[in-house]
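Sample pair:
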Amino acid sequence: MKKKQSNSSLIMLLLKGRTLIVLILLVAFFSIAAPNFLAGETLLLIAKHVALYGILAVGMTYVIITGGIDLSVGSIVGLGGMIAGGLIQEGLTLNLFGVTLYFNVPSIFLITVLVGALIGWVNGIVITKFNVAPFIATLGMMYIARGFANLRSNGATFSDITGKAGLGNTGFILFGSNTLGIPNGAIIFVVIAAIAAVILKKTSFGWHILAVGGNQRAARLSGVKVNKVTIIVYVVSGICAAIVGIITSAQLVAAHPDTGDSWEMNAIAAAVLGGTSMAGGVGTIGGTILGAFVIGVINDGMVMCGVSEFWQKVIKGLVIVLAVIIDQFQRKMEAKIALQARNT
């Protein structure tokens, strides 16, 4: 019996540390398969990509913990970039008054983030007030947001969005630049992840998020405002996506309506790889950070190895499915160990 418990404990230890183990193995593999993988420029590029996927995944982690899903984040990335780029390049024209307003960078950031929050709020309202399944609600919003992103410029790109000193809107590209050799996007990611981790583990709101995902009915009976919590997590997801749109367009010094296409899959994969359960009620920001690194390393590693874009999609799909299977296996193991502990 003791040997069985020891084996079970070892398996559980490996399962809990699976994301870190996979990350180490991936780095080792690509270091051999792609000689320049550990070069400074490559690591800088990976850091930029990990930051983008990670910020998206932080918002997605909150949503998945509540038992939901947000398929609209990739489209919000594109729309956020188009809003910011359009405000820099064209300003806001008020036809009624015959004037065009130009905003400074902090105002552009705030407007873009508010749009992301608004979309997240609409997702939350549709899900809670109209009882629409999260998958369907956010799938519809995915198309709506992408459509508005294209309508903003009739499908064209806002190029060279550096702003003009005379209009007081320069400095936007700082979001995509480096500070002391570190990508500003990565710094923003660290700040967002740290705040999200503290909220999830150290505040009553974080406990409410976990409670809603663990057992919605029990949470409601315990006094948790389930609908309010659900709406807020979708707002957070929308804000994170809008910030990613800002950072991406700043890095490219251009805004394109198709930016962020399918990035929701990277966010979901990072969260699930990090141990966030698709069944809800379980998840950590620390695990999601590791998951984002795994996705970033896989993406850039495959590109450096010359893997076809089509095979990249196949592999990422398999990673998501495998992560869910392992998660379910871990839950069963935890239940089995708990049962053995009670019997002894």
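Strands lie at 92-94, 99-101, 158-159, 178-179, 182-183, 254-255.
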